[in-house]
Amino acid sequence: MSAHAASLSANRIGALVLRYWYLLRGSWPRLLELAYWPAVQLLMWGFLQLYLARETGLFATASGVLLGAVMLWDVLFRGQLGFSISFLEEMYSRNLGHLLVSPLRPIEFVCALMVMSVIRVAIGLGPVTLLAIGFFGFNIYGLGLMLVVFFLNLILTSWAIGLFVCGLVVRNGMGAESLAWSLIFLLLPLCCVYYPVTILPGWLQVVAYSLAPTYVFEGMRALLIDGTVRLDLMAMALGINVVYFGLGLASFYWFFRQARRHGSILQVGE
Amino acid sequence: MNDIALPEATSDGFRSAPAMAAVAVEGLVKHYGRVIAVDGISFAVARGSITGLLGGNGAGKTTTIAMLLGLVLPDAGRIEILGSDMASDAAAVRPRMNFESPYVDMPLRLTVRQNLTVYGRLYGVAGLADRIAEIARALNLTELLDRPTGRLSAGQKTRASLAKALINRPAILLLDEPTASLDPDTADWVRGHLERFRQDNDATILLASHNMGEVERMCDRVMMMKEGRIVDDGSPADLIRAYGRDTMEEVFLDVARGRKARAS
Q: What are the distances in angstroms from CA B174 to CA A187, B69, B90, B93, B117?
């Protein structure tokens, strides 16, 4: 690709990010919503953790396990939501047709959604990490470089799911919108956010180990409970994520092609 | 008026479109399930012309325009725009196209300026701030630039959509019902602006419309569609003469009700 083409591509990604930024900036309920629920979750789980620690001695040695899990789960959940909601904004506003006939390429569209996913996670979780320090003395930034590795792995999974969900919505219309909100919750029990994989029955452990986030949450527990850095788990997560992302991207393109074949792109709307 | 050169019909389809064509379509087919929306149409649109696509509801106009834009994939046939094959090289031509349709909106929460900024950047418009100011002046939008698009009246919104459609000075402009739901005064004003834009930029405009007065006034050529086929084709004056009528509205009714032209 020539430098000229590359720079145009960056301009188009930037243009779409700007479109979402204008929308966020101009709507305080949207901004508030980003931080509201993560904050409520953190406070609820944080106080529960304090209670359990006082009454049962649970978490006495690793007080951040529950709060770390809450925040890392939110990276996964909010990352996918940030990706999908930005896309759904185009459906709500009936703007998708304009975008798809513009010079914007599908891969640039995906890149803009990924950027917005990170921005929305940062806006939502930034204040929550400070709340965790203030209320519970838990500093997630204390995880150091491993936090970056956890984050990258979780955000990759969230994008893969986001790609699949957006494709599904474009092909099937707003009837599939609820999947954007709910599909990710299937992972909550299976990828062992709040408990170790060994709690699951044997056959379900096999399922859990096919999910990239499982390795991240196991890695987090290893770090917080045993002080062990499990790079092997992170490598597995990354390998699975590469496959997921490839499948997500392929499904996104396939659904789009199906939507164009069935003429459903012009029929999307609120 | 522009000279229109059509591809020549042959027993096995159409020969390659004339080199001068801005849009060349060969054997375009689209089915939705068992319904045939577009049934093997072929045409060429001359550069710098305004061509109308007419027909009743379900005639295949919107599907045809959607296929030209790449929003709908044809089941068969070939589309070439400004010399680029839309199946394999759409990216090359998209910066030189634009469109407006009642089936799509611009984000309503963004101001007109924000929308034009986003689209100007998507289309790689150089000197964007100046271009927005220029187009806002031309379309009487200067006072409305910082108003959310959703708070505009229908007429203002149409002008804002038109500003988006013209932001990149497109060589090809596709319009689906460009004056639908506008009062006669605003509609007349929009038509005047489109005609000036075509003249000043040597642009090619393809428009689908139900407004026969609009078609008669603006179009160099009209293609009449019925049940997915082009059933007649010519300048408004030629069609009116051929059907022995006084207006395009009467011609439209003749075509819709299956009556044939009296003379070719």
A: 45, 8, 15, 13, 21
pLDDT at B5: 43
Predicted pLDDT at A54? 81
- Chain B positions touching A260 (Cβ under 8 A) are 70-73
Which 8-state DSSP code applies to residue A224? I
The answer to whether the Cβ–Cβ distance between A26 and B109 falls below 8 Å is: yes
pLDDT-derived band at A267 (thresholds 50, 70, 90) equals low
Q: B149-208 pLDDT, tens per residue?
A: 999 998 889 889 999 999 999 999 999 888 877 788 888 888 998 999 999 999 999 999
Q: CB–CB of A101 and B94 under 8 A? A: yes
Q: Which residues of A touch B97 (CB under 8 A)?
A: 101
How many interchain CB pairs under 8 A, A with B?
103
Spatial contact of B50 and B202, defined as CB atoms under 8 Å apart: no
- According to DSSP, the β-strands at B84-85 and B97-100 are unpaired
Considering Cα of A235, then A238, then A195, then A47, what sign does the dihedral take?
positive
Residues A44-72, mean pLDDT to the nearest whole number: 82
**What is the average per-residue pLDDT within A160-183?**
87
Per-residue pLDDT of A96-124, as tens digits, reads 989 999 999 999 999 999 999 999 999 99
Question: For chain B, how big is the Rg over CA atoms in Å?
Answer: 18
Cβ contact, residue pair B124, A99, below 8 Å: no
Contact B106 A22 (CB under 8 A): no
Measured CA to CA in angstroms, residue A69 lies from A217, A226, A227, A238, B49 at distances of 7, 16, 16, 19, 63
Confidence of residue A4 (pLDDT cuts 50, 70, 90): very low
Domain count, chain A: 1
Structure tokens at A216: 């991240």
Indicate yes or no: CB of B122 within 8 angstroms of CB of A16: yes
Q: Which helix (H) or strand (E) element contains residue A244?
A: helix A231-262
Please tell me if residue A99 touches chain B, with a CB cutoff of 8 Å: yes
Instruction: Answer whether CATH 3.40.109.10 is correct for domain B9-98+175-256.
Output: no
For A138, the domain range is 3-267
Q: Is B30 helix (H, G, I), strand (E, B) or coil?
A: strand
Q: d(Cα B204, Cα B121) in Å, to the nearest integer?
A: 23
Do B122 and A260 count as a contact with CB atoms less than 8 A apart?
no
- Which amino acid, A65? V
Q: Which of A11, A95, A97 sits opposite B107 (nearest CB)?
A: A95
pLDDT in tens, B29-38: 999 988 999 9
Looking at residue A265, what is its pLDDT?
A: 80
Q: How far is CA A121 from CA A131, A158, A269, in A?
A: 15, 11, 26
Of B73, B106, B110, the CB nearest to A261: B73
Q: In this model, does residue A181 exceed pLDDT 90?
A: no
ipTM: 0.86
Query: Which of A18, A96, A102 comes nearest B94 by C-beta?
Result: A102
CB atoms under 10 Å from CB of B102, counted, come to 14
